[in-house]
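# nightly structure sweep
# worker-07 picked up a monomer target from the shared queue
# config: single-sequence mode, recycle default, output format = structure tokens
# input follows
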Amino acid sequence: MSSTIKIFNNSNKKYIARKKIQDILKKILEDANITNASINLIFTDNDSIHDLNYRYLNHDYATDVLSFCLEEDPLEGEIYVCVSVALENATEYQTTCKNELARYSIHGLLHLLGYDDKTDEEKKIMHEKEDFYLNYMKELENNDRKNS
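# output follows
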């Protein structure tokens, strides 16, 4: 059995590095020894993520990423990533929108795998894992450039 990661773009941003993000998420699942997962990754806008955040978590604001575990075994979940927040934060953190979208996608999957970020130590662990997989994405891109 193999894991499936479906990506939906419900935002008005035309280009999202779907294949790269999908490859990273598959690598994370492989590293976690999960061979049978079904993940939907949805890129969305401020209004939609604000609505989800309010409806399910009672938070009255837009956020960067939300994860919903629908089933634990086999793993089934949905990750919602806000493209508008990624664009804003990319400017603030002096990175690319692609990098922020990948970071939020990774972050969302880590939550589905049981990682949390409530304490400083948990945040540190998640951030280190995010950085590890973002570097993996950069290595893939560098290899693609060398091979073309």
